[in-house]
Structure formats: C-alpha cells, structure tokens
C-alpha cells in the first residue's frame, strides 16, 4: 500500500500537512555517533512512559484547543529504540492519540525498529496495533562497520529483521543506512547499497556520517574521538564517490532519489518526513522531541513557534504527570526564519521548489536572488522546471553551500 497524502503546491511532493512525532528514548546501548535524546537503562518504564506521553498530549491540547479540529495525516514513532516498547503500550498510545485527535483514513503510521530487537511476535503486535510502516535501523551489512558504529546486530540479523517484518504483514518497509564511516571503502558502501536494494524495500534512507559539532545537538563520543585524531573519516572526494555509487545502485532497482538522502519506489516516499521538508506542522511528544506549530491565521504572513522537550526521561515524566508542559525551550519563528527553512528544505527535494512563490508567501523580495539562480543554472548546479528551482545531482551534493548563498 502507498499512503494518500496532500500534494504540497510549492514542491509538488506528497506530504503530510499535520503530523505527530512520538519519541521513545530508551536503548540497550548508545551508539557513539548518536546525538539524539536517548537513555540506557536496565528497566524500561514502558507503561509509565506511554501514559506520560498521553498526559503531555492532554496538556498541549488544553493549551491549544484548536488542534482538536485538525486531522493527523502521519504518525512517526522514533527513538531511541521504539521496538523495545511492548506492542501493548504502543497500542495504548496510538489508541489514546486517536481518541483525542482525528487521524486520517490511511494515515502513514511508522515505527523505527532495531534489528537486534525484531522478533516475529513483537512485529505482529505492532501491525495489529495499527503501525503500517516499519523503518529498520540497519546502517550497514558489514559486521566490521557495524562494530565501528557501536551497533549490536550483525548483517545477518539485519536481513532476518527485514524478512520478519514482511512475514508480520508489513507491506511497506524502509531501511536506514550510514556511509562515510571510518574504515569504510567505496566498494563496501556500494555493496551495502546493492544488498539493500536487492531485498526489495519500498524506501531507503542513506545518510553520510555526521560528526561535525555544528550539525550535532550535543557532542558525541565519536565527535570527541575525531577531535583527538583517534579516528579518521574518508576524504570528502571519496564520500562523494560513495554517494554516486549508492544512488546508481538504488536507481537500478527502481528506487528513485526523491530527496537528497532518501530513495523510494514511486508512491512510497515518506509522507511524514516530507512534512519537515515542505513546511508542514507537527506535534511532538516525548523526551527531547521537537515540535513546530504555526500561529498565524489565514491571509496573514506565516509565523509560528518551535518547542523542544526535556532531554531527561525522569524529569520529562514528572513534568508530564504533573500536567506541566515538559519543555526545555520554546523559540518564536518569524516569517524570515520560516522562509529560510522553507527554501533550504525545499531544495533538498528532487522535485525542486517554486522559489518565487516561497519569497512571496514569506514576504521576501525575489529580485536580489535572480542573478545567483542564473549562475547556478549556468554552472550546471540547478535548472528551472517551470516555476520550480531544481538542484541537479551535482548541486544536490553541495546543497548546504547553495542554500547559504540564496539565503
């Protein structure tokens, strides 16, 4: 099954306009590259955490009653390791959400799973609870690279997890991979890509390893090792070659690059992730979760706010149980800030973005950007398809630099 989703007129991409992200922070161990809000504990407070998440939702709906009239088009349970959460508590959360908010028929409901916690009974339970899309955190099939990344599963277990998901009735399976890992060769990156595509998934997310401090929420063990010179990543030119090899391998199996780091069969792009790339709104619940909501009315220039929940699980649960917003911060978003996000994120999509319409919507003058866009086209980094500015493959490889120049 693919998931019906509204088409964003500025990019032509099918994307949720209102979604929900639920963060499950608990893990068996913390990977050295991970900067997410995670907690390694001996005993996971599964029921307490599920009820705290619903308590947070009640608090947010009390503060923003208009949200009760909105329809959720996607729900994403991420982590952490959500596959550590027993299906009965996942069902409790999904049923609790549906009792409080409208959920669109055929909504995309995703759950991230770790191959080391992927037994048949658990997967069948998630499917029965209403999850219709599973995303496996494979990262690599090479055992040596998995060890370097601090992963506890093997390549064989990753394949077994994929097969288990299929037997459990998941018609839509995605897998996540990382490349540009210390010690990795181009041949290994290509081998991972070919093995992944040959399994027949509907969706693949493949990210270059990020360890630079500017991109991380917090310092990680791997970023500190890099600072000390204890590990060395492949040179940029080799990472670019890996990117090309991965793209070609996926394309040969009908998995098209619809976003810089994401490939899918036609109709199977992630509707939830696409809402981030197309300026959609999203509630977020759970430890360290980030949400974004608009505050402007129809006809007004867009404005909104972004909030981040507490990163400590005990502090989060106490606040939620006491009926307090469990936030660590809240940031007001001006039309300019929303414009910058909308343009930069829209350019990540291979469908491109109607850049002049984005300027108009957020009150920005398009004229100062025309010369730069002409230069991008002249140098083969972008092309104009009607009103949309589309980065070429070469442009997509330097997306950050192009976005900075246009902003």
UniProtKB/TrEMBL annotation:
SMART domains in UniProt: Elp3
Cofactor(s) in the UniProt record: [4Fe-4S] cluster
Cited Pfam families: HemN_C, Radical_SAM
Assigned GO CC terms: cytoplasm
Keyword set includes Kinase: no
Keywords from the UniProt entry: 4Fe-4S, Chaperone, Cytoplasm, Heme, Iron, Iron-sulfur, Metal-binding, S-adenosyl-L-methionine
Domain Radical SAM core: 12-252
Keyword flag Mitochondrion: no
Localization terms from the record: Cytoplasm
InterPro entries reported for this sequence: Aldolase_TIM (IPR013785), Coproporphyrinogen-III_oxidase (IPR034505), Elp3/MiaA/NifB-like_rSAM (IPR006638), HemN_C (IPR010723), HemW-like (IPR004559), rSAM (IPR007197), rSAM_sf (IPR058240)
Role summary: Probably acts as a heme chaperone, transferring heme to an unknown acceptor. Binds one molecule of heme per monomer, possibly covalently. Binds 1 [4Fe-4S] cluster. The cluster is coordinated with 3 cysteines and an exchangeable S-adenosyl-L-methionine.
Gene Ontology molecular function terms on file: 4 iron, 4 sulfur cluster binding; coproporphyrinogen oxidase activity; metal ion binding
Name the UniProt record assigns to this protein: Heme chaperone HemW
GO process annotations (BP): porphyrin-containing compound biosynthetic process
Source organism: Archangium gephyra
Family stated for the protein in its record: Belongs to the anaerobic coproporphyrinogen-III oxidase family. HemW subfamily.
């Amino acid at each position: 099954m693919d998931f019906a989703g509204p088409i964003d007129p500025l990019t032509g991409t099918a994307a949720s306009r209102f979604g929900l992200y639920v963060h499950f922070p608990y893990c068996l161990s913390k990977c050295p590259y991970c900067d997410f809000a995670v907690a390694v504990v001996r005993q996971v407070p599964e029921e307490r955490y599920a009820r705290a998440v619903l308590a947070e939702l009640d608090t947010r709906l009390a503060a923003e009653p208009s949200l009760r009239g909105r329809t959720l088009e996607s729900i994403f349970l991420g982590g952490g390791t959500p596959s550590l959460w027993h299906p009965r508590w996942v069902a409790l959360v999904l049923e609790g959400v549906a009792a409080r908010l409208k959920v669109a028929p055929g909504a995309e409901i995703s759950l991230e799973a770790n191959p080391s916690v992927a037994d048949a009974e658990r997967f069948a339970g998630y499917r029965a609870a209403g999850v219709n899309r599973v995303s496996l955190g494979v990262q690599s099939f090479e055992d040596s690279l998995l060890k370097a990344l601090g992963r506890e599963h093997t390549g064989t277990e990753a394949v077994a997890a994929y097969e288990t998901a299929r037997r459990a009735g998941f018609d839509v399976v995605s897998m996540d991979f990382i490349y540009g890992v210390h010690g990795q060769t181009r041949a290994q990156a290509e081998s991972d890509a070919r093995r992944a595509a040959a399994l027949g998934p509907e969706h693949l997310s493949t990210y270059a390893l990020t360890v630079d401090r500017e991109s991380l929420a917090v310092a990680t063990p791997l970023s500190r090792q890099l600072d000390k010179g204890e590990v060395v990543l492949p040179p940029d030119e080799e990472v670019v070659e890996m990117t090309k090899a991965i793209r070609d391998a996926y394309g040969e199996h009908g998995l098209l690059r619809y976003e810089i780091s994401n490939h899918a069969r036609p109709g199977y792009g992630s509707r939830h992730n696409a809402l981030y790339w197309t300026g959609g709104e999203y509630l977020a619940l759970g430890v360290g979760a980030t949400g974004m909501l608009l505050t402007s009315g129809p006809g007004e220039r867009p404005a909104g706010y972004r909030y981040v929940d507490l990163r400590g699980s005990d502090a989060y649960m106490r606040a939620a149980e006491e009926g307090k917003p469990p936030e660590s911060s809240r940031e007001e978003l001006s039309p300019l800030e929303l414009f910058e996000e909308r343009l930069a994120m829209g350019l990540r999509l291979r469908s491109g973005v109607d850049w002049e319409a984005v300027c108009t919507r957020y009150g920005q003058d398009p004229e100062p950007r025309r010369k730069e866009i002409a230069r991008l086209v002249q140098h083969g980094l972008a092309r104009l398809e009607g009103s949309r500015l589309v980065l070429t493959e070469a442009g997509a490889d330097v997306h950050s630099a192009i976005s900075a120049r246009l902003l």
